[in-house]
Amino acid sequence: MALSRVCWARAALWGSAVPPGLYVVRRLQFVRSGLTWGAPRYLFPRQLLIQHFWTPKQQIDFLDIYHALRKQSHPEILCYLEKVAPLISDAGLQWHMTELCAKMQHGTHPAVHDILALRECFANHPLGMDQLRALQMKALSRAMLLTPYLPSVLLRHRLKTHSTVIHQLDKALAKLGVGQLTAQEVKSACYLRGLNSTHIAEERCRTWLGEWLQISCSLKETELSLLLHNVVLLSINYTGSRR
Asked: Mitochondrion among the record's keywords (predicted)?
């Protein structure tokens, strides 16, 4: 088992991973280890390290600091979405993107259907995975807790691999059911997907995770750029009120 985890982590990290399939389902069912709740270990190495050596209070303090660094990329990503909205060929989608960004900048938490309405934009120019510019890929990498200090070709390849792994995990988690997760597993799953869940009540975390899974499980492989952007779209205003 230990060897298989190492092989999978290496394969996923270097881009030669195959779809997790049964492996992911089995990991979710049988290998729940605290904060990692069975996700591939390269996705969250810092939590794997600190959970064994730090007190719960130290862990929360660390996650708050680390999330603050991650959150610095959020305005950058929203600004980019606003900037490229006029480049979207469909006028209706253009308006919808501009409207969504404006509402989010005023503190609105978007509804699932508002995000899914834009899925077509993330399959083609200018927001498709193969059309993302270097600065946007760096911002997305920071939001996903990945280093942005790589050449563009490697950033794109790793974001593709990362989004595919998350997508497969989401499908397996949806099949298992959020209700089967412990409180800590729910919070960890939310944190991995962009929400700073350390100070959010368990039920609100479960609600948010349900929204994430609804979006993720509706996406095709060609639309996974939306999954990366969803780290910001769905999490940035969740602690505020829906308007």
From this structure: yes
**Number of structural domains in the chain:** 1
In a domain, 95, yes or no: yes
| Minimum mean pLDDT range among 7-16, 36-45, 191-200, 202-211 | 7-16
Assess if residue 37 is contained within a domain: yes
Which domain covers residue 156, as residue numbers? 2-233
Q: Is 124 domain-assigned?
A: yes
Task: Look up residue 150 and give its DSSP letter.
Answer: S
Q: Is residue 228 situated within a structural domain?
A: yes
- Which band of pLDDT confidence, cut at 50, 70 and 90, is reported for residue 239? confident
Is 45 within 8 Å of 36 (Cβ atoms)? no
CB distance 155 to 134 below 8 Å = yes
Task: Read off φ and ψ for residue 33, nearest 5 degrees.
Answer: -125, 80
Distance CA 9, CA 235 (A): 26
Query: Which spans in the chain are helix H?
Result: 2-14, 22-30, 45-53, 56-71, 73-84, 91-105, 112-116, 134-143, 152-176, 183-192, 202-216, 224-233
How far apart CA 110 and CA 233 sit, in angstroms, is 7
CA trace torsion 222, 102, 79, 211 (10° rounding) = -40
